[in-house]
Amino acid sequence: MKVAVAGCCHGALDKMYETLELLQRRHNVRPDLLLCCGDFQAVRNEADLRCMAVPAKYRHMQTFYRYYSGEKKAPVLTVFIGGNHEASNHLQELPYGGWVAPNIYYLGYAGVVRFRGVRIGGISGIFKSHDYRKGHFECPPYNQQTIRSAYHVRNIEVFKLKQLKRPMDIFMSHDWPRSIYHYGNKKQLLKMKSFFRQEVESNTLGSPAASELLQHLKPTYWFSAHLHVKFAAFMQHETNSKEELPKATKFLALDKCLPHRDFLQIIDVEHDPNAGDSLEYDAEWIAVLKATNSLVNVTQSTWNMPEKNGLYAKWDYSATEEAIKEVLEELNHDLKIPCNFTLTAACYDPSKPQKNLEPVHTINPQTTEFCAQFGLTDINDRIQQAKEEGSGRGECEEEEEEEMDSSGSAEEPSEYTTDNSGLSSFNPDEIMLDEEGGEEDLSTCSVDPSPDHPAEFSTSFSDIRIMPDSMAVSSDDATDSNNEELDRCGGSRQLQERSSAERPLKRIGADQNGNSGVKKIKRRNQAIYAAEEEEKTD
């Protein structure tokens, strides 16, 4: 079957689907499935805009609300993960995944589904070590900290995914797995994005948690976005035993969804011709969710996942064949995901803007039904209970929190030694959350939809690349001309300050000597929507 893969969508659904229709008209190619690798921006109304961690000038309604209201319907089944610029309050309603609109499915904090026999997994958000070991405690209305931490990857999601034993066909993450750049044309990457050089050379670019999952899951394909550059790599995995067959992963990072950008990829994926056309639950994943349900945490307290170190009575939560069989029997061997989408918030009406609409913590009926069916904890219900009890655990009130070093404090050590998310060099192709001079205004938003330019958008077909049967990576694409040793940059290197001639970097926190006057570098996307930035970049 043909699978279309898109990078950061940024709410431009009309443009994305128009491009797919153009593909069909010009080349008679119709994808059976569309995958989106984060920054989807399922914004329903003005309140959702306030829950999106971007500066106020980038808060635009875009076009998702038309699909949410039923005015339009996605022409192809769309499955997506969350990124770091999302309507977090909306996606939080579906921690285990669910429909955000008819024919548009969100995978949840982490999730695995099947379509036509193809197994598709994903993890939402980006890695930040100082939040990695916390529970999902955030809920709207968010404050200056939680509006960001809400989209940070948590160790429990990685732990769940690491319990999977069966082969994975496709996996998605928003940020790249750390070190993946050593398996592709690194020279070309640095030519296009020279400001990545320090992180690549110090091996701190990307998510260490995603890298851990890549080594464990060994999927056939891995798709990412976030860095707004197209990049291909081919990773041959080591075998654990002589009996194990060699496995390799074809990695592809996609550009953002904008005219004249190479943001769509079409690949041919082997599928089961006898399978139906419905999106289905994955029985092993459901069994893992049931097995790990007791580990659910909705507090800010940091904790480690069970491991074989003598401190835990149980550390293996993988699903047995019997547990998987029980899931199948519970579902009467019908794994079809019910089309039970329901509206849970008012939809934006251009004729009646509600600029003062406030976000509320909502328990989605889809999640309630899913949890009841499989005996799982409804995370939002648990947060709501803690909030009502006033226990302070999972508290949603706005409160002052001390800014922490992104690599973790002494009291909360990270299990990873480096955290690129706090040390990244400046990326002129991304949005920066303006932290200099105080907090951003969460109450400000633009309610006018961004104007659509279908004619201009359709004139260029460079937005699409059609891949052959196997997403082959040529020797020119997958290796450096200097044939550098892949693990040359495995050691950690201290990042140096960039030249003062370059655009100044924004920092927060204290320096190595504890001087609060020195601010710390943070990665943020900058200028995603600005047309003038597009012209400069292109």
From TrEMBL:
Needed cofactors: Zn(2+); Mn(2+); Fe(2+)
CDD domains xrefs: MPP_Dbr1_N
Keyword Protease: no
Locations listed in the record: Nucleus
One Pfam family here: DBR1
Biased composition (Acidic residues): 396-405, 431-442
Any one GO molecular-function label of the UniProt entry: RNA lariat debranching enzyme activity
UniProt domain Lariat debranching enzyme C-terminal: residue ranges: 235-380
Keyword line: Hydrolase, Iron, Manganese, Metal-binding, mRNA processing, Nucleus, Zinc
GO cellular component: nucleus
Region: Disordered, residue numbers: 386-523
InterPro entries, sorted: Calcineurin-like_PHP, DBR1_C, Dbr1_N, Metallo-depent_PP-like
Xref: Gene3D superfamilies: 3.60.21.10
Gene Ontology BP, a term: mRNA splicing, via spliceosome
Stretches with biased composition (Basic and acidic residues): 386-395, 485-509
Compositional bias segments (type: Polar residues): 415-427
Similarity section: Belongs to the lariat debranching enzyme family.
Protein name: DBR1 enzyme
